[in-house]
Each structure stands twice: as C-alpha cells, then as structure tokens.
Request: fold
Amino acid sequence: MNEIADEDVPALLLRTVPESAPFIADKYGLPAERAVLTQDAVLDLYEVLTECFTTPVLMPQLQSSVPDAGLLQRCWDFVEPIVDHSSNHVRGAVYFEVLEPLLNAHGLIERSWPYMKERTRQRTLLMLHSYGTSVPGVTS
Reply:
C-alpha cells in the first residue's frame, strides 16, 4: 500500500469524514473543499485533527448513548492509513490529537476498539503500554 502524502491528509479527512466539512470551513473561512488543499491545512494538522475531527466529530460519537456506527467506522478508516505514517508530523498529530485524548475519558478506548483497524490497534496498545495503562478487554 502506498503511503498517503502529508499534504493529502486534510483532503483524506474531508473525503472519509465529510461531517468534518463545516469545522474545516469555519477554521479557514473557505469552503472545506478549498481549505483542505491549502498549505495551512497541512502545517496546522495538529489543530485540524483536534478542531475539525476529534473534538467535534469523533468524541461526541464515542460519548453518545446511541453512536452512529457508520460514522465511527469512517473515522477509524481515516486514522488507519496515517497512524504509523513515516512523517513525524503526521504520526505525532494522530498520536497526540486522536489517540491520546481517548485516555482522558473513561470508556472511550473500549468504545473505539471495535471500530479500529489493525495498525491503529497496535499503535493504541503501544500508547497504553507507554502510559502503564490497563484497559480490560483491550490490554488483557
């Protein structure tokens, strides 16, 4: 599988999780389809993931009593090809802005686990191990 270029990550987010569009458009004051093509979207990847994906889309679904399973699947479909990206910028953004916030709320890793793909699960297990965190049904 070919690695996604750094500059294509914001567009991948928009294609895979179109629910991020209003947040992207608001952040850049441009239509989301244009905003994801700007250099700013690539340079601001940490902010884009937090402000346009994790906080407004992923976390509310994980915290919902009736989450949209299709949306959660697409969220983790977006994460999978970039979770172990060769670029420290991309890989770090996913680690700090998508995976690490799952530690801050009880039960979110468990709720995410069924939707995660193999590479994302492996990276999550490494994160949990590095923090010395045990999650029943995930680490044991």
Observations:
- The chain has one domain: 6-131.
- Residues 80 and 119 are 6 Å apart (CA to CA).
- The radius of gyration is 14 Å.
